[in-house]
Amino acid sequence: MALGDPLIAFAVPPELEATEPPEARGVARDQVRLLVTACDGIQITEARFDDLPNFLEPGDLLVANDSTTLPAAIRARRGNGAEIDFHLSTRLDEGRWVVEPRRSEVATGERLDLPAGGTALLQRPYIDSKRLWEADLDLPEPVFDYLHRWGRPIKYDYVRGEWPLEAYQTVYAREPGSAEMPSAGRAFSNSVLERLDKAGIAFATLTLHAGVASLEGNELPYPERFEIPVDTAGAVRATKAAGGRVIAVGTTVVRALESAVDDDGDVKAQSSWTDLVITPERGVRVVDGLLTGFHEPEATHLAMLTAIAGHAHIERAYRAAIEGRFMWHEFGDLHLILPDK
Predict the structure, then answer these.
(1) Closest by alpha carbon to 92, among 48, 124, 60?
(2) Which of 2, 22, 88, 227 is the most exposed place for a label (fewest CB within 10 A)?
C-alpha cells in the first residue's frame, strides 16, 4: 500500500537539514523558528516558538502527546558474526515486539544475539513490511530497564554525533513507550506552558507510542497504541462546544484524536490501537489546527496536513519554508497551521 506520487513537489536543500539539537547551535529549545500559516496559506508569519501564545486565542486547546522516548536502538549480532543496528519499534498485545533489523536481509526463524545474553527470535514480517518484523525477546531484565542500560536513541544519517536521551524528550513526557520522539512538542518549555495558561489557552495530553518512523518506499504508517484520558476527551468536547479551536501538537495527536471520534463527532476516552491513515479524501472531524515539523516530500504526513488545511495552503507554506530557510527534521523548526477564520 502507498499513497502514490508526492502531494507537493519540492526538494529539501541539504543545508536545511537540522543535523544536531538546536541547543548545540546556540539556540534554546523554545527559540527555534516558527512558521505560522493561515487563511489558505496566504497569511504567512515568521516568528520564534516562544511567540506561540501570541498566535492562539483564549479558549483554544492544545493537545500534546506525552509519550516518553525510549533508547530503542541497540546492537545485535547475527549468526555469521556480523553486527547490525537493531531497533525496537512497538510492543504488541501478546508480548512480542515489532522490531527493525536496520538495513539487513533477515529470515523467519533467525535468532539475533543482543547485549548481556539477550536474544531476539524473528517470527514473521510485520503486516506487509519488508523491514519490520515481529520478534520474541528474551532479555535478562524488563525491557525498559534493559534498553536504558544498553540502548541509545534511534538516529538517522542526517544527525551528526551522539546525543543523550534527554535531547529526544519533551518537557511534559511521562508515559514510556515511543521508539522515536514525538518531536512536534520538543520546543515547549515550562515558560511557554506558563504563558499559555496565563493567556487562557488550555493544554491537555494523550499518549500515542510512536513506532519507527523511517517510512521508506512510500510506506503507510503502521498501527500504534494510544490512550486518551477522560479529562482530555472532556476538554476536547468542551472546547468544541464553546467554539474554541483544537490544535494538535504533532501528527501523532491528530491520528489518536481522529481515531476516537464517535458517530456524533465527539471524542471519547479510550485505550486502543489505531491504523488510521488520514488523507484529504477522509478529512478530519475534530482537529482544527496543527503544530508540526516540516516533512519530507514523500512523507504520508503531507496527506494529513493537506486534509487539515488544503493543498493550496500547504503548498504555499512549504514554498515559504524553503525560501525562508527553515530547518527540517526532529531538531528543526516548527510550523503552526491555523484554520481559516
Answers:
(1) 124
(2) 2
